[in-house]
Specification:
Helix content: over 70%
Shape: elongated
Number of helices: 4
Number of strands: 0
Oligomer: single chain
Amino acid sequence: MEPIRTGERLCRAIEDASSAVRGLPALNGDRAWDRVRGAGPEELMQFDWALVGESDGLATDLADAAGLDMIGPAAVEGRLRRIRELIGERRRYLEIQA
């Protein structure tokens, strides 16, 4: 695949993952806090730390690349897949606990 198209596809995938992470429930609302209090903040923190770790790893991989042709699409897609899996696991955990 042409590097520019691969880069554009990866950028869209990163933006989609970023939007999904920003859309996760936070602890600022009363209803959200009531649900989290029942679910256990420690468990949610584990999900969030895993998200931070994967996101940080992705950011490091991308920052270390000297150019678009130095980015391994499979590695980026693997990290994005793990981020999406963590988002799904976190959402399912809250649904089960709610």
